[in-house]
Each structure stands twice: as structure tokens, then as C-alpha cells.
Amino acid sequence: MCKHFNDNGSLNIKEIPRDLPTNVKPFEYHLSFNVNETDFTFKGETVVEFDVLEPFTKELNYLELNTSELYDVSAKLLFPVEEEATSIEEFAKFQKTRFTFSEKTLLSLKKGDTIKLAIKYGGYLNDKMCGFYRSKYEDANGDIKYQFVTQFEATDARKAFPCYDHPSIKSDFTIKMESIKDFVHISNMAADKETIIGDRKITIFNTLPKHSSYLVAFCVGDFVPVKSNYNYRVPVTTWTVKGSEKRSQYSADFTSKCLEFYENLFDIPFQFNKVDSILCKEFSAGAMENTGMITYREGALLLDPEQYTIAELQRVSEVIAHEVAHQWFGNLVTMSDWTDLWLNESGATFWSWFCCNNFYPEWNVWESFITDSLANAFALDSLRSSHAIQNDSCEPDEINQIFDAISYAKGGSLLRMIKTWLGEKDFVAGVSSYLKEFAWQNATTADLWTHLEKISGKPVKESMSIWTKNVGHPIVTVEEIETTETEITLKLTQHRFLKTADVKPEEDEIVYPIVLFYKTEANTAEGTFDTSFTFNTRETSLTLPVSSSKNFYKLNGNESGFFVTKYPESRYEILAKQSSLMTDDDKAGLIGEMNSLCAAGAIKTSTFLNLIINWKSESSPAIWNQMLVALGSIKRAWFFEGEAVMNKLKTISADLAANKLDELDWEIKESDSFNLKELKVSLFSSAVNNGNAKYTKKSLDLFHKYLEDETVINPLYRDTMFTAVALNGDGKDYDAVFKIYRKNDSRKIIALKTFTRFEDKQFVDKTFELITEKIILPQDIYIALSMIGSTPEGTNTLWNWLKTNWDQVVKDFPPSLNMLSYIVRICTSGFTQFPQYDAVKAFFAEKECNGFDMALAQSLDAITTKAKWVQRDGADLAEYLG
Ligand SMILES: [Zn+2]
């Protein structure tokens, strides 16, 4: 960013670059805020000090700062001379304000001088969940209350204070907060001084050193502290609301443990004087890693110690581990530009799994990684509308769109690939070396590669930049060209993989350096594989030691690489029977790849279904999840092909799950291993979701008992019981669930998922009413919409709702928030047919699509994929289903 502004003096708004002048650089901010909690405004003062890096010129004779939605702005130079600004011009479209002084003032400054500027202004405590905003909630007595909190990433610090709002500009921040005396004040650093004057409280916080603006944070409100019971060097507290203290203990304790884990792992102590985790009742993202003041939505922070489900425990732990990892990976060392956002997000994603693996080895975290992060990454990256990990986005509307599966999950998957390639020891040492060199500074992707290369001696930079700078990933096609008693020779070719199976030559110019990670029968005992062979040409041949008796080999051992393998059709039949020679990671990976391959027409859907049926006696939850998800994706593609085919597909899933559950005994016992519990939960859920009569009845009976006595069920089965109610319940059940929703306890989200899934028109209409009345919180709208879209009719209803209410939706969810992308995706991506594709395309052809154009393109690609799949394999599947 930050090119010199160079015009001829006459202002033409179209020519003004968004960037700010680079001849000065801020190094220190003193920020003051005075909160008016009744009219939802604040008065602000920003005193900012700049270094002069280059002299001013006649053309560039002003200061500029990013601003957005600030009002009554006045400014005064404090140093080197005291002088009121002669003009203050806001360029709202470019989100900046220009401050001009008398002609000679800035011109007289030399390189090395400093400038001190004071700006007074007013701001809004908005209800849009960005900037300095108001977060509304009902307290335990049902009274409406507000918390006032900040969410600045990516470019909303400018809504709270004028600044150089870019990650590459790191400055010191000293914050002063004033409000009514009853409110608690929290910021990144601990309070230095707190005074009460009359009915006002004034807090001055310790200086936050060298930080990017998007990581600055503060909040005021009725927060209640829950201190960590785990003894860590600095105080760790979760700030919650009254009545939720018990549910807040886990987060305080686990945050402390994660801090200790990462500082030992990276060999760099946590650098700040406390960590607070803040429960934000209204929050657009899951959580935000602000240094020392991490903010969370409720579902990502609170855990009922007596009532949690496996999914809740894993989600809360994973999010906390992610945000704490950011304290090093993102906050201490920050990406130089949004282009390298993946460094922050993939890093935190990868380390959160790594950290959970340490605390919960029984989770088999890396197996879940395959069915979760890796699967999400493949799903998005196999669409034409995917993007490269290192993205050139710089406009605020575009930055928000790249907080997606590519920046989080594909990057995380590549880090896992590098870890396998280099070995864990070198990988961790390389990362630690990178963090040490760039602490308190900014870094680029290349900087990380340099350190990994230095430690490992492997050509990381050259290899990895191909993976991160290009969009997509390869498919490796295997031909078996010669077989002897002891060997097999393979011919391998690589091309770009697209699920729409229509790669154009110009999209297929990249040859990836693919570490093949191949396994042969020599490896099977310990689950090891070769990490030395890199396939970096379009075509190659490879001879492997494979005996004619065992006849086993597999590429991509433990699904470590980011590529899809296409074997000859006959090899899948062999692999289907070689379950015992593969690890659970291999099998989960193979199912995921085959699912993509049949969507792309590279193998027949029936081949894939045969393999799944062959593996019905598996006992790993990851394998089962992957199988059930794959069956779900077939159902999603055949969604609009009529009830008969849907029912047959449902029966396959329901029977598979129910039979296995019968075999295991469905009741969860205390003595069951974590894996077994997890498996039972998945099977029970799938059986009920797909209409198995026996388990549906059990669930409904349980629910009706549960309404009288909440202890009758094992909490691990709670969510499935609610699902059964959503699919089969009556009006009375609806009312019961809605009552639970209004209680605002730990069941709020599952209750929301339940009553919004009722299919009858009257209930769907009620959901839209609740959205309009904001009884369903705007932050949760995506949950309600997803549930409505669970059926073909619901998918049509959603689309009609979006079309009718488009103007209001854009008003409520401005394009700079990524919520709009979610809404567009949810309301369009359920379609599966070409005429539906045309309708979506035609509607948006007339609209301004800034801020969600990527989500829309991805939705359209997803529809195309499904439409082509059905067209291609309709007959094959019909024959299979009989
Ligand atoms: Zn993150």
C-alpha cells in the first residue's frame, strides 16, 4: 500500500488513491473514549505522533488518516507548532480524512522530524457488529442490556479512531476510557490507573507496544470475572455475564494451558501482562484474537461442565487454541499485508489442532483434521472460483471475503504437508526461528519459507511458493504399466483438478512439486511412508516394490499431501479389500478423494458406493464421518431429483448407521473410549437424520421425558434428540423447543437449529418473522437460513425470501461484513439444476456484487458441479439403487 499521492492540485475524487501518504509513519497513539451508553455515541480524541520519513512537497502538503463514520471532526497540530487545521476534508468513499495546515507548516519539516496531531470527533456505537459497537442482550431477569465492544479486523479500527489502518503499520497505543462508574473497562493491557469522579469512571491502560490497528481492542459493560484455576504466569480471566459464571470456567483454565503450551513450543514467552477472554453477546465472527483481550461469541467460549456435547467441547477448545496461537502467530509477528492473511489464519488453524492434540490425545486430532479442515479446503479449492492462498486483495470489501476455507484450511493443510515433509522437529524449530526474528514486526510468506529452509536444508521456498501463489491443486492420475512378481511400475501424470471437470489449457499451466508420500507393503506395519520422492514434472514413472501376493501400494500416505489421486478403476476394488493395510488417516482420505472424483466424473458413483459398503465394519469415527458426509454429498446433488431416489439414498445411510449402532449397543457407557463415544454419537445422529424409525422413536421418547427431567439423557445424545424433534415433532414440541431457546442457556443454539428446521409453512414463516424482529440475532441468521434450506422446498423458499428482501438484507449486512457472503451462499448453493443456475445468475446480473462476488461465483460453481454430476451419473446411480 501507501503510494505517494501525486496529483496536480485539483482534486478529482476518482483519482484519489485509497492509500495514505507514505512520507510519514505513525509510531504512537493516545486514544481517549467517552461513552454515552444512552444515545449510543462516544466522544473520541486521538493524539497521533508521526515520524517524517520524506519531506512534504507542494503537492503532498497535508496529513491523512483512515476514518469511517466519524462526525464533528476537528484537528489541531500540537508539534512542532500549535496550529488548527485550515481544512478538514473527508473522502468517505475512500474512508479517509485529509488535514491541511497553513502552507509552510508541513513544508518546513525535514526527514527525521516528528509531528503530533490531535483530532477530536464523535462516533457511533453502531449495531452492525464492527468498529466500536453495541452488543445487545437480555440479562438473567429478562432486562435488555448493552455491552460496548470493538471488532476491528479487517478495516474497522477507523470507525473508532482515525489511524493508519493497515497491518504493516505498528505503533504504540495508550488508551483512556470513560463511562458510567458501574461499567467494567477492559482493553488489551491491564489498567494502569482507574479513578471514579462523581458517577463517572476513568481508566488509563498500560501502553500496548508495537501493534497493528486491527488488533487494538477495548470494551465496557456489566462483565463478571471468572479467574483461571490453572496457575499461569500472568492473570487469565474470562469476562462473562451474570448467571454464566459456571459455564465460563473451562475457557479461563484452557486459555492458561494454551498460553503455557505455546510459549514452551515456540520458546518465546508470552509478552503481555494479562489475558482476558470476553463474552460478546452479539458477535459477527467466532472469535477475535486481539492481544490480551480476546473476544468470543457465546458458542465459542462457554461450556456447561455438566451438559456439554463432544462437538461443543471440541469447538470451544479449538477456537481458544486458535486465538491463543494468534498471540504469537499474527499478533507478535504480523503479516505485512492482507495478501498474506493466510499466514495468520492458517498458522492459527494448524497450531490449534497441534495444541488440542497435546491436551486431548484421545481425540485423534489429525484424523479429524482430514474430515474437517482438509475436506473443507478440497471442497472450495476444487472450484474454478477458488483463489490463491496469497491473494492480491487489498480493498476492504475484498479483504473480508478471503477469510475463507482457503486462507484457513488450505493453508493449514499445506502446513501439515510441510510438517510431514520436513519432520515435526525441524518444522517447529523453523517456525520458532521465524517468530524470533520477526517478533514485534511484520513478515511475509517468503520469510517463513526462508526459516524452514534454513533449519531443514530442504528447498522449501521454491516448492512452497508454487503451492501458495497459484489457485487450485493437482490430480495425479495413475496408470499401472507393468507388474512383475516383486514390482509394479506406474505412469503418473498431473493436471489441475476441477470438480466441474472442464479445465481449460490456460488453467492448467502449473506443474506442482508433489511429494508423493507413497506407501507400499513394506511400510504398512508402522504406518510409515516415503517422504523423499518429489514429482515435479507433468509426467513421470515410478517403480515400487509391490509383491504380486499382497499387491498393495497407495500414494499420499496418511493423506499428508494436498492432491487428489486417481487410480485405475480396478485398483479401487483392490483397495476396498485392503482396509487392514491402511491407517485410518489413509482410509478417511481415500473416501474424501473418491467423493471428489465421482463428483468430477473421474470414477463412477457406484464404484464409490461399493467401497463404502465394503467398509461398513470400520470402527474409526473419522472414517464413518467421512463416509456419512460423502453419502450426504450425493444426496445434496440429487436433492431435486424426486422423493423416490432421495428416500433410497437416505435408506442406505440410515441402514449403515443403524446396523453399526445395533452392533455396538447404542447406549453410551462411562467405560466407552472417547472414540467409541464419538462413533456412537455420529451413528445415532445419522440414523435419525436419515429417518431410521427405531432410533427416531427412541429420540422422541427421550425428548418428552427430557422436558420433565433434563438428567434422563446422556448430554452427548442431546443434539440428535433435538434433530428428531425438528424432523418429526408437532406444534407442542415446537413450542417446547422455542421456550428453551428463550431461556438463553447452553441449549440456545441447538434449540435454534431445531425450531428453524420444522418444515411446515407456518413455522418457516415464523422464522422469517423472528429474523425481522431480531429475536433470532443477526449474528445467528446463517444458522436459521441453513436449517430452512434442509429440504428442496425450503431451498426454494430461501431463494424467494432473498430475492424479495434483497435491499433490506444489504442494508442490515453491509458488504464489508462477511455475513453477507454467508447469506448469499446459503440461499443459493443448495440448488442443483441448470435452470436454477440461470435464475441465480440473472438475478445478480442486475446487482452490485462487491463484497460477496466470490461467494456467489463459488455458489454457481457448486450448482454446476452438482448438475453435471447428476447428468453424468444419473443412470449409474439409478441402476445401483435398483
Ligand atoms: Zn484466526
Automatic annotation (TrEMBL):
<dbReference type="GO" id="GO:0043171">
    <property type="term" value="P:peptide catabolic process"/>
</dbReference>
<dbReference type="GO" id="GO:0005737">
    <property type="term" value="C:cytoplasm"/>
</dbReference>
<feature type="site" description="Transition state stabilizer">
    <location>
        <position position="408"/>
    </location>
</feature>
<keyword id="KW-0482">Metalloprotease</keyword>
<keyword id="KW-0378">Hydrolase</keyword>
<dbReference type="Pfam" id="PF17900">
    <property type="entry name" value="Peptidase_M1_N"/>
</dbReference>
<keyword id="KW-0031">Aminopeptidase</keyword>
<dbReference type="InterPro" id="IPR034016">
    <property type="entry name" value="M1_APN-typ"/>
</dbReference>
<dbReference type="GO" id="GO:0006508">
    <property type="term" value="P:proteolysis"/>
</dbReference>
<dbReference type="InterPro" id="IPR050344">
    <property type="entry name" value="Peptidase_M1_aminopeptidases"/>
</dbReference>
<feature type="domain" description="Aminopeptidase N-like N-terminal">
    <location>
        <begin position="26"/>
        <end position="215"/>
    </location>
</feature>
<dbReference type="InterPro" id="IPR024571">
    <property type="entry name" value="ERAP1-like_C_dom"/>
</dbReference>
<feature type="binding site">
    <location>
        <position position="322"/>
    </location>
    <ligand>
        <name>Zn(2+)</name>
    </ligand>
</feature>
<feature type="active site" description="Proton acceptor">
    <location>
        <position position="323"/>
    </location>
</feature>
<dbReference type="InterPro" id="IPR001930">
    <property type="entry name" value="Peptidase_M1"/>
</dbReference>
<dbReference type="GO" id="GO:0070006">
    <property type="term" value="F:metalloaminopeptidase activity"/>
</dbReference>
<dbReference type="GO" id="GO:0042277">
    <property type="term" value="F:peptide binding"/>
</dbReference>
<feature type="binding site">
    <location>
        <position position="326"/>
    </location>
    <ligand>
        <name>Zn(2+)</name>
    </ligand>
</feature>
<dbReference type="InterPro" id="IPR014782">
    <property type="entry name" value="Peptidase_M1_dom"/>
</dbReference>
<dbReference type="InterPro" id="IPR045357">
    <property type="entry name" value="Aminopeptidase_N-like_N"/>
</dbReference>
<dbReference type="InterPro" id="IPR042097">
    <property type="entry name" value="Aminopeptidase_N-like_N_sf"/>
</dbReference>
<comment type="similarity">
    <text>Belongs to the peptidase M1 family.</text>
</comment>
<dbReference type="Pfam" id="PF01433">
    <property type="entry name" value="Peptidase_M1"/>
</dbReference>
<feature type="domain" description="ERAP1-like C-terminal">
    <location>
        <begin position="552"/>
        <end position="864"/>
    </location>
</feature>
<feature type="binding site">
    <location>
        <position position="345"/>
    </location>
    <ligand>
        <name>Zn(2+)</name>
    </ligand>
</feature>
<keyword id="KW-0645">Protease</keyword>
<dbReference type="GO" id="GO:0016020">
    <property type="term" value="C:membrane"/>
</dbReference>
<protein>
    <recommendedName>
        <fullName>Aminopeptidase</fullName>
        <ecNumber>3.4.11.-</ecNumber>
    </recommendedName>
</protein>
<feature type="domain" description="Peptidase M1 membrane alanine aminopeptidase">
    <location>
        <begin position="250"/>
        <end position="467"/>
    </location>
</feature>
<dbReference type="GO" id="GO:0008270">
    <property type="term" value="F:zinc ion binding"/>
</dbReference>
<keyword id="KW-0862">Zinc</keyword>
<dbReference type="InterPro" id="IPR027268">
    <property type="entry name" value="Peptidase_M4/M1_CTD_sf"/>
</dbReference>
<dbReference type="Pfam" id="PF11838">
    <property type="entry name" value="ERAP1_C"/>
</dbReference>
<keyword id="KW-0479">Metal-binding</keyword>
